[in-house]
Every structure is written in C-alpha cells, then in structure tokens.
Amino acid sequence: MKNYNRKVLFVFLALVFVTIYANAQDNIQVSEPQVIYKSGDDGIAEFRIPSMITTKKGTVLAVCDGRVDRAGDVPNNIDLVLRRLKKGSNEWSPLTRIVNFAGKHGAADPSLVQDHSTGRIFLFYGFCPGRNNITEGANRERRHLMLQYVYSDDEGENWSNPIHIDYAIREDGWQSIWSSPGRGIQLKNGRLVIPCTVNKLTKVMSTILVFSDDHGETWDQIEVAENINEATLAELANGDLMINARNQLEDRKCRAITSSKDGGKTWCQPVVDRNLPDPNCQGSFIRNVFKVGKEKKDLLILSNNATNDGRKNMTIKLSDDNGQTWNYEKLIHEGPSAYSCLTIMPNGNIGLLYESGEKSPYETVTFVEIEIVNY
Fold first, then answer.
1. Cβ(267)–Cβ(208) under 8 Å?
2. Beta-bridge partner residues of 4
3. I need a surface site. Which of 74, 117, 196, 232 has the fewest CB within 10 A?
C-alpha cells in the first residue's frame, strides 16, 4: 500500500510539473519563423553574428556578418550587411552592405546602439586587416582586431565612413579589441555603452565597456573582469547594471553574471549561474517593462542555447526578480542554433534574431516575434 501511495504521489507531482510547464509555454506565443539571411544570398557564402535594435522611430535594423567568399571568422573577407523593417510594415528591405572593405579586409561582430537624444545610430565592429599581399600577411600585428564604428542619422538608410577609435582606448598589453556581438545600451543618464572583448597578450580574454557621455563625440573604457567575453548588458530599475556573458571560468557550461551598483565604475567578481545552462556560446540579454493584461511586468529576457550539450535549442527565458530565478521559458528552435539578438518591437512584443538551421546552426539568420500573453 505504501508503495502504491508513493507511486500515486509521484504521478500527481509529475502531472503538476507538466501542467505548470505547459502553461508557462502557452503564456508565450511565437510567430512563424522568417528567414532574413540565408547562406548563398546576394553572393555571400555565410551570414553570422546577428545584431538588432529598434530605433526611436520604430524602424527595426537587422545587421550581421556577411562572410563573402567562405565561411569562417576573421581574417576573412567579411562585410556588414543590413535589412530594415519600417514601423507598420511586414516586408524587410533588400540587403545592403553598409561596411564593405576592399580586398580581404574584414569587419566582424557587429553591435548596434542608438542615442535617443540625437537619433544617431552607431554600429561598432572589429576590423581585421586581410592577407592582401605577402608583406601584410606576414605582419601579424596588423591582423589583430581593432575597434571601429560607423554611424547613421537617417534610420539606417545611409552610413558614415569607418571611424577608428582603437588607439583612443587601447591599453598596453592588449592584443585585440572588438565589440561584443549584439547590441549596446543607452543608460538613463544618457551614457552610451558598448560591451567589448579584449584579447590580452597573456591570451586571457577580458570584458570592457566602451562608453561616451557626449553623444559619441569622444569615447573611453572601463575594464569589467577577465575570463568573461561576448558580454550583454542591462540597466535595472534601481540603476544597477548587470552583465550576462559567455564565460571562461571554471564551469564553462553555463552563463556568467556580474553586476555594478555605481554605474559601472566597479564590478562584482563574476559568478557562474548554473540555472542558465549554455554550451559556451553568445547570448542576448535585455530588460523591459511589459504591459501584460492590466498589469505592468518589469522583466529580464535572455536568449541562448539553453543546454550544455552543443549549439542547439534556441530558448528565451524571463525573470521578474532581476535574474534570481527564471520562471518562464520558451523553446524557439529545437534544432541547431547559435548566436542571437533581442529587441523590443514597436508594438511592445519581443523580437528575436538568431542563427539556426536543420543540419548546422549557420544556415540562416531567422527572425521571430514573441508575445507575452500572460505572466
């Protein structure tokens, strides 16, 4: 009888768990996936590393690496490509190449941010000189990644020439600097912040924040911590800053977290969050206040491959307690997937741009819109 009662209790608890999980899944509705970039389009071998923002006027910008001749990271012939979705439209604009260097030079790992006071949109990336000739190819120093940006004052229709800021922020002992892929943010005090990654001569990776307090006229940097990279940043309601990052710490199969209570001047020692499994890949992390029914919900949103078993299972998770717990999650793509970027759409829904495919994570860059129906 005792064994029977235990079995009944076990089945009951299992059903309760399944019901709760199913309700959580049903409370998050996802649109049909829309392929924005596909390998081979426009003569480009591979598209990778999505970056996306929604502008103040409601235009959605979707940028990524266009790896022209072959798949693979820099050094490689990589352009930065853009498609735009205007507010109220369902059709994305044709592909345009907004950073396109001659020869085998590459621009990689895009990160977008907008100054909402001026409307100017900044696109940061890592520039890598290519192997155009024997002299250049033999000079390894010249092939290290250097930080550059371009900007647009007309919703992404036209872009400036590249602006090189690497030497304004570089410190001794740094080998390469590049933007952490995805997006930056503008803080409530107006500061523009772009998370970036530094590869030091000691071969240790470190996260820095490149920032501007004068609308992008000048830039400076603060080092956050070593052994975390491809960081994403959110500003909490109380003004604290929180970073959710790919980690190089002792347990690389989950996300790394650190926070600052003084606007980013000092940071806590990064810790691993074992509630956030990850195959040591990039993720995206934002905060937004949503209207759900008659209530407002202040939520953190994370997109990543929510498994430590390879690059697959693109998932979003929601937290209403500043990341202490993650109560809701939704599987977006069960198959191969990798990098992603989140934005808030003009209608208040979540936009997700992510790498995915049937056999490889790098076949397409795909977009879905996500609605929180209940919370």
1. no
2. none
3. 117
Coil, strand or helix at 124? strand
The CA–CA distances, whole Å, from 106 to 79, 121, 144, 346 equal 6, 21, 11, 32
Does residue 77 contact residue 106 with C-beta atoms inside 8 Å?
yes
Place of tokens 């793509």: 333
**Which amino acid, one-letter code, is at 284?**
S
Give the model's confidence band at 187: pLDDT under 50 very low, under 70 low, under 90 confident, else very high. Answer: very high
Summary mean pLDDT of the chain: 90
Q: What is the CATH number of domain 30-372?
A: 2.120.10.10
Amino acid identity, residue 178? W
SS3 at position 88: coil
Interacting residues of 67 by C-beta distance below 8 A, sequence separation 6+: 44, 45, 46, 47, 48, 76, 77, 78
β-pairing verdict for 34-38 and 312-319:
unpaired
Q: Is the pTM of this model over 0.70?
A: yes
Q: Which residues are catalytic?
A: 230
Ordered alpha helix ranges (H), the chain: 2-26, 134-138, 166-169
**Amino acid at site 278:** D
pLDDT (average), residues 236-241: 97
Tens of pLDDT, residue by residue over 154-170, are: 999 999 999 999 989 99
